[in-house]
Amino acid sequence: MSYDILKQHLKKHVDLSTADLDLISSYFKPASLKKKEFLLTQGSICKMEGFVLDGCFRVFTFDKKGNENTLYFATKDWWLMDIDSFMNQTPSDLNIQALEDSKVLLIDRQDKMALYELLPIVEKLFRIIFQKGLVSWQRRLVRNHSFTSKERYFHFIQTYPDISSKLMDKQIASYLGISHEFLSKIKKNKK
Fold this sequence. Notes:
It contains nine helices and eight strands. By secondary structure, it is of the alpha+beta class. It folds into two domains: 130 residues, Jelly Rolls (Sandwich); 45 residues. It has a four-stranded antiparallel β-sheet. Strands 2-7-4-5 form a four-stranded antiparallel β-sheet. The mean pLDDT is 92.
């Protein structure tokens, strides 16, 4: 499994030497997941942070009525984890499932903390990555509160055409916070 995608991603955020990139990469372990396989299930502790090399994942939770609520999708060059469970080692509220055969690089909490000590720039690197992720979450919250369902749908398919083409309507509806039936009406009116 190639670490080049991870190295290129890390170089976008901070200036790292080849030796630093090799060292950081050595702390990540490759994993392959089959379609529908779970990397994390609700109630278990998130022991790994993942970087997607190939494939597509969804991060979701079940509400009290058993409905799925999708927080985000992750494809090549994206990170996935339950940050609360990972950092605090508490039971997760989230599920992480492969939507197709996928490959990831995983780092556990102990190795990540060791990297922080060994190579202080890694802490800056992950702070920058975390901040960019937080900005993305904030923008999504603003859209969810200010866009109509139809506007959210069109924004999603225009912004993430590669992801939306891999998903079932039910999964897109779950992400948008609307019913599958309402999404069908939006798509029908679009034509």
